[in-house]
Amino acid sequence: MRVKLIPYFPIVLLIFHVVGIMLFQFYQNASELSWFNILVCGILIFLSEPNLKKAGDVLAVIFVLGFIIELIGIKTGYLFGNYTYGNALGAIIFNVPIIIGLNWFIIVVASSNVLRTFKIPLIQLAFLSGLLATFLDALIEPVAIKFDFWKWENNYIPFLNYCCWFIFSSLFSYLYLSLTNGRNTTAFYLFFIWILFFLFLNFI
What we know:
Layout: H1 2-5, H2 9-26, H3 34-47, H4 52-76, E1 83-85, E2 92-93, E3 96-97, H5 100-115, H6 122-146, E4 150-152, H7 159-179, H8 185-203
Helix pairs in contact: 2-3, 2-8, 3-5, 4-5, 4-7, 5-6, 5-7, 5-8, 6-7, 6-8
């Protein structure tokens, strides 16, 4: 049943994000539903993996490490710069939204699957995936500030943020690409859905 439903997941996500754009235009508190959007994307991407056991292991590692990285970043300012989270991403533990680990997983898997079919060495794939993930983060940043996902000290996004995003997303991509097999088409399409989604939110 799961395999038969996978081809419809990108359509579901496209519709979901079109509705999201309308909510951001007409509903003042639309940003408070952002955690739910991340949850739905994460579930559908995970279910689209050819091997759920291997994908589950990768998800667990990225989820936990992603949360720890954000926790270190929030507490010290050494990794990404000085920033704090708002209320748009749901439940928070130690000043970090629980959902943020899943967000790392989504961005890494989506970026990796844009490139997965390229016949190049794994390290190069992970490197390029890290670049795509960092590009996506750069696109998300203005939206995040505008809608209270998180905010930066003095409204300044340090270059360090993008350096660390590239390093960690490249490492996570290497982990994902080395431990899983087969293309995740839902993740592939979500990458481009998110580009269009956040481009639009940048200009409304």
